[in-house]
């Protein structure tokens, strides 16, 4: 199948040839069933195949996809960062007020409190504050990542993004579970450094698979992710490394760098997963 030329343009020959591509990650790795095309408004996007889709090409497509819907992505990122900031300060204020009142009731605050060591109640109050703030912010971050993954998947399906795509709830509940599992494995593995790196490389595609195939369980997504990586380890590793370097480069610009970093990362992983598994995907000229 020749590639999609862009916004409503005609088909032009390109480097990505056709083939008997499967329509789902599960069917692709199980070797069952051809892809069933859905109702596309104009021309269907191209099928990205292996091994032509190199990491550099995938990253380039991610930047183009971000630029094509820059306004939607920027507003979505800013809105989520605003929510994170508001939640942080709101929870911090609420917990501190409650902890302060509890400390007074327990008699831990007196006229000489400034010169006394921190009491047991004070320590408990600080721990509760930390746990509450971390829990709420972490939940908001999971929700943010899930929404970005959902939006990236929709963009690669050739659909137009809207502001509402960045604020899904029911549609991203399963995605949040996958992000939580992957994040847990990466965090625990990072304590020993090498296992954390292995977890990132093997399971980065699990959320993308869940976004494309919502009916799959968390375990199935993790299993298909590691199968995908083993099928084309070079492309998978190269994409992870390049996206990591891009995130580092954007982080040098502090807050401003977060605006393009989140979308490009989400789009990059979505492109890579579809390229490796030969899924149908829109391309930008």
Automatic annotation (TrEMBL):
The chain crosses the membrane at residues 73-106, 118-144, 178-206, 240-273. Keywords: Membrane, Transmembrane, Transmembrane helix. The keyword Transmembrane applies. This is Uncharacterized protein. The lineage of its organism: Bacteria, Bacillati, Actinomycetota, Actinomycetes, Mycobacteriales.
């Amino acid at each position: 199948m020749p590639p999609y030329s862009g916004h409503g343009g005609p088909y032009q020959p390109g480097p990505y040839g056709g083939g008997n591509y499967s329509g789902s990650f599960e069917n692709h790795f199980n070797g069952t069933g051809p892809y069933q095309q859905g109702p596309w408004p104009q021309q269907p996007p191209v099928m990205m195949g292996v091994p032509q889709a190199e990491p550099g090409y995938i990253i380039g497509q991610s930047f183009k996809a971000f630029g094509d819907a820059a306004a939607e992505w920027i507003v979505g990122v800013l809105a989520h960062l605003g929510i994170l900031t508001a939640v942080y300060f709101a929870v911090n204020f609420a917990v501190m007020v409650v902890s302060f009142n509890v400390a007074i009731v327990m008699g831990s605050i007196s006229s000489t409190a400034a010169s006394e060591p921190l009491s047991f109640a004070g320590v408990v109050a600080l721990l509760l504050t930390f746990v509450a703030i971390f829990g709420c912010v972490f939940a908001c971050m999971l929700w943010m990542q899930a929404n970005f993954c959902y939006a990236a998947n929709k963009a690669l399906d050739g659909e137009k993004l809207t502001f509402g795509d960045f604020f899904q709830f029911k549609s991203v509940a399963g995605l949040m579970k996958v992000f939580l599992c992957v994040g847990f494995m990466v965090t625990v593995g990072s304590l020993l450094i090498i296992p954390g790196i292995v977890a990132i490389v093997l399971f980065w595609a699990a959320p993308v698979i869940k976004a494309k195939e919502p009916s799959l369980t968390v375990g199935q997504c993790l299993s298909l992710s590691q199968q995908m990586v083993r099928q084309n380890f070079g492309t998978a590793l190269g994409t992870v490394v390049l996206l990591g370097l891009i995130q580092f480069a954007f982080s040098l610009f502090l807050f401003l760098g977060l605006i393009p970093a989140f979308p490009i990362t989400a789009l990059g992983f979505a492109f890579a997963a579809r390229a490796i598994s030969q899924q149908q995907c829109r391309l930008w000229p």
